[in-house]
Specification:
The complex is a heterodimer. By secondary structure, chain A is an all-alpha fold. Chain A is built from 14 helices and 3 strands. Chain A has a two-stranded antiparallel sheet with strand order 1-2. In chain B, helix 3 packs across helix 4 and helix 7 crosses helix 9. Classes of the chains: A mainly alpha, B mainly alpha. At the A-B interface, helix 1, helix 2, helix 3, strand 3 and helix 4 of A face strand 1, helix 2, helix 3, helix 4 and helix 6 of B.
Chain lengths: 289, 220
């Protein structure tokens, strides 16, 4: 930007000024500009405040919260809190997040350079193949046992680096919703899936996955909405196995035991052989005990 | 400056030099160990810069949720287009790495701030009845922009600043000294905060001496 006192300084020039890296003539010109240009001086001050090395106790507490939030978003459980300094707790959080990001980078690289998916749908499918995020069943999800491990609960996949890839692929509302659903980021997934479900072309898979998001989000009012979505999916396609599976799971979760038993039996009537069927049978046995 | 301050760990002995690590990450996307080092050493800084930038721009206390989301955006920005941003890094010091991460983090927060501000602006619709009533009564609408007091302050200060520069016997550093004066008296930075940056080439007492000298001249 140009004004009465010349060209405004770039962020790089401002930080190089702070480091003392500018040539003398350029440094003098930058100082003349900074004295006259409030906007550039304000930005210089922003960098001076950002780059302050000291971390106040208030900031340390906030960093701990951010680290915890980050871990939750990436499904990496925090080490149980200990009676130690906030910096130490913060560092433990960082170590957990390291594993997540490295796995994410590797996965992103793998997708970018090896498997080379050509669409958002393929990215999501690849992620679905990697791990099972929750008990409910997303459309097109291959069966994997639900692992309940102590410590690192999942393979440590971090999805953040894939977000740019999804954008590049021009992911639609449904695929973006599934992408966030796979991360268990329900706050982001649900609006995308709700938008997709309102579209005229919304099929059984969309309603099923929106139902999964409602069911797994854990909010009681949303759980109640899950049933309607599974029923909508089944209305569109009576043989939509994922929705039939999820409806039984919904009844289980809401303690409607008789309905759950009936629904598991109904599911097994048209899927008796798959790994999902085996899981359904075990659940049915569990209800009968 | 608040007491009981903590400092971030920067570099352990035997670790790769920070600037080299940044450049290498831009070149070698497939090196798991390299990215492990990157996150171990720089993620805390990214969190901190995003958090500070958010607090500066949004003037809000609880930034936890937004900071975590925006930290993801920082990573996306670093690696997108085959790591163009990482590969563009030309720095040669630990400070330059910090400055680089601060610039990327701040630019992500600025983009976010712009989008939020645009949304708010488009949502600020004043009912026509309210506007008419306000016009009839001669009152200003409560949503009308207020006079920016800081702008007024800076206009006044420019006159003083010119006097400072003209009258400074240290001609070579007159503009730097005037800038320091502004940073302290207008922007509220402490002497130590200014001296912490090598670009000013001064110790804390050196900054204090300049401030005292310029203040005295203005008062005289």
């Amino acid at each position: 930007m140009k004004d009465g006192h010349g060209q405004c300084l770039t962020d790089e020039t401002l930080t190089e000024y702070l480091e003392g890296n500018l040539e003398p003539a350029f440094k003098a010109a930058s100082e003349s500009h900074l004295v006259a240009c409030e906007r550039c001086r304000d930005q210089l001050v922003v960098f001076m405040r950002l780059l302050r090395e000291e971390v106040t106790p208030e900031e340390a507490g906030m960093l701990q919260s951010i680290s915890t939030e980050w871990d939750q978003q990436h499904s990496i459980p925090m080490t149980p809190p200990r009676r130690s300094s906030s910096y130490r707790r913060y560092f433990v959080g960082l170590v957990a997040a390291v594993a997540a990001l490295v796995a994410g980078v590797s996965l992103w690289i793998g997708i970018n350079h090896s498997a080379e998916p050509k669409s958002a749908l393929e990215v999501n499918q690849l992620l679905l193949d990697q791990n099972r995020p929750f008990e409910a069943r997303m459309a097109g999800q291959p069966h994997q046992p639900m692992l309940r491990l102590r410590g690192v609960e999942e393979p440590g996949v971090s999805y953040d680096l894939l977000a740019g890839q999804m954008t590049q692929f021009g992911a639609d509302n449904y695929e973006m919703g599934r992408f966030y659903l796979l991360q268990k980021n329900f706050a982001k997934a649900i609006p995308f899936l709700e938008t997709a479900a309102r579209e005229a072309t919304a099929g059984a898979a969309v309603h099923n996955d929106l139902g999964v998001a409602y069911l797994e989000a854990g909010n009681s009012s949303q759980v109640a909405m899950a049933e309607q979505e599974f029923r909508s999916a089944l209305q569109q396609n009576k043989a939509f196995a994922a929705a039939a599976f999820n409806l039984a799971l919904f009844f289980e979760r809401t303690n409607a035991t008789a309905q759950a038993e009936a629904q598991w039996k109904q599911y097994l009537a048209f899927d008796a052989e798959s790994d999902w069927a085996r899981e359904a049978r075990e659940r049915l046995r569990g209800l009968s005990r | 400056m608040p007491g009981n301050l903590q400092k971030f760990r920067w570099k352990k002995s035997g670790e790769m030099f920070g600037p080299d690590l940044v450049r290498e990450c831009g070149e070698r996307f497939t090196d798991r160990e390299l990215w492990h080092q990157f996150q171990e050493r720089f993620q805390g800084l990214i969190f901190m810069y995003v958090m500070r930038s958010l607090r500066a721009r949004f003037a809000q206390q609880d930034v936890t949720g937004s900071a975590s989301d925006l930290a993801q955006e920082v990573y996306v920005k670093l690696v997108q287009h085959d790591g163009r941003v990482l590969r563009s890094f030309k720095g040669a010091s630990d400070f330059s790495v910090r400055a680089f991460l601060a610039r990327v983090s701040d630019s992500v927060v600025r983009d976010h701030h712009r989008s939020v501000t645009t949304e708010k602006r488009s949502a600020q619709v004043i009912p026509i009845d309210q506007a008419k009533a306000a016009e009839a009564s001669g009152k200003k609408l409560s949503d009308a922009p207020k006079v920016d007091v800081s702008q007024l302050g800076s206009v006044l200060s420019l006159i003083d600043i010119e006097r400072i520069i003209e009258g400074d016997p240290d001609k070579k550093n007159a503009r730097r000294n005037a800038l320091i004066f502004q940073l302290h008296y207008i922007n509220g930075l402490e002497s130590g905060e200014i001296a912490a940056f090598p670009g000013f080439g001064l110790t804390t007492s050196g900054v204090q001496t300049i401030l005292a000298r310029l203040k005295k001249r203005l008062q005289g």
